[in-house]
Design a protein that fits this description.
254 residues; Hypothetical protein af1432; 14 helices
């Protein structure tokens, strides 16, 4: 069982991944067909093409924070990948193994699906108040016509409601991954910050307390949602002075 798994090398890591996704083989086995209609083929490719756009849609928050235009900006798809790998790193090292791992990964894979159609709405955007309703319609649009849509829509709804342990964990992963990325970028916020950021009451309060780094603002903004497990990870991140230099070295190689 996954709960008893101890990942000690790459071979067991692959077994772990296989076990995580074996759930879907079981769940959809009865629906598998050798023949596909033209309509079904078109549906599959249309969903993939829509999702594929997230590879090129950039996370707009970094622009608002003034990230150097010369630096390669993170795409939404890269953020989703980062969330999945962060969760995997925690699970593989024995963390949060009381959770439904399959459901957590599904939440993380799908949690930015809405942005295919509505873009990346940040807390500083004027339409942030409408994001929930816009997002719900966008997700329905993405799954429109898919015969197994209800299963995934229920998981997205569970994530958005944020009441189950899986949803709370996935939300913390989402925010903590952004905090890590902000730390990577820390030395490269050289452009003028967007006025919506500078006028934010919470950001002004942080600045008044003497905070200056963008990663500090991100961490302070998210800190209240973290449980003790994530707070320990956060403490390590805050004291990690190598992470931005590692990113700089990688940028020079590229």
């Amino acid at each position: 069982m996954i709960c008893d798994l101890c990942v000690e090398n790459f071979s067991t890591l692959f077994l772990f991944l296989f076990a995580v996704y074996d759930f879907y083989d079981i769940m959809f086995y009865m629906n598998k067909k050798d023949d596909l209609t033209e309509k079904e083929i078109k549906q599959i490719f249309q969903m993939y093409k829509n999702a594929h756009t997230l590879k090129t849609v950039l996370r707009s928050g970094w622009v608002k924070w003034g990230l150097d235009k010369k630096i390669r900006h993170e795409s939404i798809a890269e953020h989703v990948y980062g969330c999945c790998m962060l969760a995997l790193s925690i699970f593989a090292n024995g963390g949060a193994m009381n959770l439904n791992v399959d459901k957590v990964f599904t939440m993380l894979v799908l949690h930015e699906t809405e942005e295919i159609f509505i873009g990346d709405i940040t807390p500083f955007d004027k339409k942030v108040g409408d994001k929930k309703e816009l997002g719900k319609k966008a997700v329905m649009k993405f799954f429109e016509g898919a015969p197994n849509a209800d299963y995934f829509l229920k998981i997205i709804e569970e994530f958005e409601t944020n009441e189950t342990e899986e949803a709370k964990f996935a939300h913390q992963i989402d925010k903590f991954e952004a905090d890590i990325q902000a730390k990577y970028y820390d030395n490269h916020f050289v452009e003028k910050k967007d006025k919506s950021v500078l006028k934010s009451e919470r950001i002004m309060r942080y600045k008044a307390l003497g905070y200056t780094k963008v990663s500090d603002f991100f961490i302070l903004y998210h800190k209240h949602i973290f449980d003790d497990y994530f707070l320990k990870l956060l403490e390590y991140l805050e004291n990690d002075d190598e992470i931005d230099r590692e990113y700089d070295a990688g940028e020079k190689q590229n």
